[in-house]
Design a protein that fits this description.
mainly alpha; 8 helices
Length: 155
């Protein structure tokens, strides 16, 4: 059962946004979902402000220097890799746990978007950036090269 909503909030919008919202059947639900999505993705360092306090920049710089970075094999975005990843990976949520376990096993890192779009090798079970499965199968042995099966990752 959903929690009752007993607080009313109002805000002003321009004419263009008002016309967009006019076509939405449940404006309250849309706005609630948008606010939760925005607040759920706030930067933990700046808390959504876009800047950090000057007195914190030194400690954040030290923290970042402790990280190692690896490029996503799909889109080549640099991603931080925690030094203690091996000890923490089993405590992570399902999709991240699988993605980072594969990184530990293969040394090939995928960001969460590329992992979601990746093809899964039916021979070895590894997720491969979309479109690169034939090359992966050629590199990893004749059994894999003969396997015509490609599984799209759906999780």
């Amino acid at each position: 059962m959903k929690a009752p909503k007993d607080q009313v909030m109002a805000f002003k919008v321009d004419a263009q946004l008002a016309s967009l919202l006019a076509s939405v059947k449940n404006k309250s639900e849309l706005i609630r979902d948008a606010v939760y999505a925005y607040l759920g993705h706030l930067c933990p360092l700046c808390e959504g402000k876009g800047t950090i306090p000057a007195n914190r920049s030194h400690e954040i710089e030290l923290l970042l220097k402790q990280l190692e970075f690896a490029a996503c094999s799909g889109c080549h975005t640099p991603l931080p890799v925690m030094p203690r990843l091996r000890t923490l990976v089993n405590k992570l949520p399902g999709a991240d746990r699988i993605r980072l376990q594969e990184f530990q096993k293969t040394g090939e890192l995928l960001c969460s978007d590329c992992f979601d779009a990746a093809d899964k090798c039916d021979t070895c079970g590894v997720h491969v950036p979309h479109g690169r499965l034939p090359a992966h199968q050629r590199r990893h042995g004749s059994l894999a090269a003969r396997s015509p099966l490609v599984t799209r990752h759906e999780d």
